[in-house]
Inverse folding.
C-alpha cells in the first residue's frame, strides 16, 4: 500500500513541476510565438521613431572644475592641510594600535582566567582521584584480610570436623 501511495505522490509532484514550469515559461513562449507569426505581415502598428534629441550634458560641461578633484589629491598642495592629514593618519594608526592592544589584553585576561579555572578543576579532580585510590587501597586491604580470615575459618572448621569424626561426634 505504501509503495502505491509513494508512486502516486511522485506522479503528483511531476505533474506539479510540469504545470509550474509552463506557468512560468508559458507567457514568454506565447508572446514569442505570437511575434514570430505576426512577422509575416511586416506591418507595424507604429511608425519608426525620429529623435532629434540633443546629447546629454556631461559633468565636465556643467562644472569643469570638478573633474580635477580627487580624494588623494585633496590638499596635497597646501603644506598645512598635508601636515594635518598626516597627523590624522598617525592618530588613526595610534588609535587602531591602542584598540588592538586592548583586545589583546582582554584576550590575555580571559585566557588567564580560563587557565586558572582549568588548574583549579584539575586540582579538584586530582584530590578526588587520590581519595578514590585511598578508598580502593582500603577496600583491597579489607578484602585481603577477609580472605585470610575465611581461609583460617575454613581450616578451623575442617579441623573441628576432623576431630568430630575421630571422636565419633558426627550428627550431634
Amino acid at each position: 500500500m505504501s509503495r502505491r501511495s509513494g508512486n502516486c505522490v511522485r506522479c503528483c509532484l511531476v505533474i506539479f513541476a510540469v504545470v509550474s514550469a509552463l506557468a512560468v515559461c508559458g507567457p514568454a513562449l506565447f508572446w514569442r510565438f505570437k511575434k514570430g507569426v505576426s512577422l509575416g505581415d511586416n506591418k507595424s502598428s507604429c511608425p519608426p521613431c525620429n529623435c532629434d534629441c540633443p546629447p546629454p550634458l556631461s559633468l565636465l560641461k556643467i562644472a569643469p572644475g570638478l573633474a580635477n578633484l580627487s580624494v588623494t589629491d585633496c590638499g596635497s598642495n597646501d603644506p598645512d592641510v598635508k601636515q594635518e592629514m598626516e597627523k590624522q593618519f598617525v592618530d588613526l594608526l595610534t588609535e587602531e594600535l591602542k584598540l588592538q592592544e586592548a583586545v589583546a589584553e582582554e584576550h590575555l585576561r580571559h585566557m588567564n582566567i580560563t587557565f586558572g579555572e582549568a588548574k583549579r578543576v584539575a586540582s579538584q579532580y586530582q584530590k578526588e582521584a587520590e581519595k578514590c585510590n585511598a578508598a580502593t587501597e582500603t577496600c583491597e586491604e579489607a578484602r585481603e584480610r577477609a580472605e585470610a580470615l575465611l581461609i583460617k575459618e575454613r581450616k578451623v572448621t575442617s579441623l573441628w570436623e576432623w576431630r568430630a569424626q575421630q571422636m565419633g561426634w558426627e550428627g550431634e
The radius of gyration is 50 Å.
